[in-house]
Amino acid sequence: MQKLLEEIVAALPEVQVVGDCDKIIKDITADSREVREGSLFICLKGAHVDGHKYLEQAAASGAGAALVEDVPEVCPDGLTLLKVADTRLGMEVIAPFFYDYPGKTMRMIGVTGTNGKTTTTNIVRAILRKAGFKVGLIGTINIMIEDEAIVAHNTTPDVVDLQRALYRMKEAGCEYVVMEVSSHALALNRVAGCEYDTASLTNITQDHLDFHKTLENYRDAKGLLFEHLHEGKKENKTAVFNMDDASSPILCDRTKTRILTYGEGRNNDIYPLFFKVEAK
Length: 280
Description:
Elements: E1 3-4, H1 5-11, E2 16-18, E3 24-25, E4 27-29, E5 39-42, H2 55-60, E6 65-68, E7 80-83, H3 87-98, E8 107-112, H4 117-130, E9 135-138, E10 142-145, E11 148-151, H5 159-171, E12 176-180, H6 183-187, E13 198-201, H7 209-212, H8 215-227, E14 238-242, H9 248-252, E15 258-262
Parallel strand pairs: 4-5, 5-6, 6-7, 8-12, 8-13, 9-12, 13-14, 14-15
Antiparallel strand pairs: 1-3, 2-7, 9-10, 10-11
Helix pairs in contact: 3-5
């Protein structure tokens, strides 16, 4: 995969260019340790690390360009700088663009919830493969491209890693992607550039409140998957809700696509005919 730097510049709103745009970009990364010849290095400002401090290192490793918020007094030799107001927002634009929006071309199934995401995504993957489809899986334990396993570092990878993985799935001929979607990823928009066909909620319990602070914030973050499901160009989208969870009716009201419900009650679209109680 590669793009002309001038194409990337054209995709970025309100960008100021310092240097030569007549270059070919062969990779994008926000990790200075992964920079190679022809990379575009994204300088992110984090709580503990500022990527701008690694501009010289990126240039020495062969980077052709860098996405920055601050332009240094002396620009590293051979490095073109793309200055934007917020590099994190810029990354959300250029990562899907660089990989030709793979999350908009395959059938995307997103599963969110406190518990049950891994089990659900693996069951759905198994069903689809049994039906003869090529399937990619993105989850807590690993990323699967058919039978190839890649170690996953987050439940939902960051924007660049996610788009790179989706591109590899598309290149491998995957028709479906089954994906665990965390509340962190939704709140931080790591899923930028993805258009889901199906979104499912397992449950929401008192968890991850160290990040979200309140249960309402936690629910609202997960709700983003359903509130934006109708957006985009794909048709016949469906939201699937566990109606035995108290958050489902709230999120149903925020959803503008077809809704499918499941739960114990027979008023649901899918319900159990009987329960088997295991003897103790």
